[in-house]
Amino acid sequence: MNLQIEMEQHRGVLIVRLSGELDHHTSDMVRMQMDEAIQRRQCEHIVISLKNLQFMDSSGLGVILGRYKLIKQKGGKMAVCDVNPPVYRLLEMSGLFKIMPIYDNEGNALAELEVVS
């Protein structure tokens, strides 16, 4: 029941790295921190790295979809990367990959998003 969030700005892209468990206990904290970072920083796009995320439930899915809508309203794009198999399955079943691209790693996601920046 522990979650760590690390955020970094790379040019116009906000990189969010999540480690631990994104569930109903931690989703509000992630939502608030991401919203604050989006408002405070001049970011056009978001990359969410799930490399070290062991578990995610529907609350976590809601956080990702909500930030997707927020950045899309600003004309930006969002991508996820480094998704492990259990979390991948949840994202795939939810249909998330129909609206948002997935990349093998952060470098590929950044390269793709910066083409459109």
UniProtKB/TrEMBL annotation:
It comes from the Bacteria. InterPro entries: Anti-sigma_ant, Anti-sigma_F_ant, STAS_dom, STAS_dom_sf. Pfam families: STAS. The keyword Cytoplasm does not apply. Residues 3-113 form the STAS domain. In the phosphorylated form it could act as an anti-anti-sigma factor that counteracts SpoIIAB and thus releases sigma f from inhibition. This is Anti-sigma F factor antagonist. It comes from Paenibacillus brasilensis. The lineage of its organism: Bacteria, Bacillati, Bacillota, Bacilli, Bacillales.
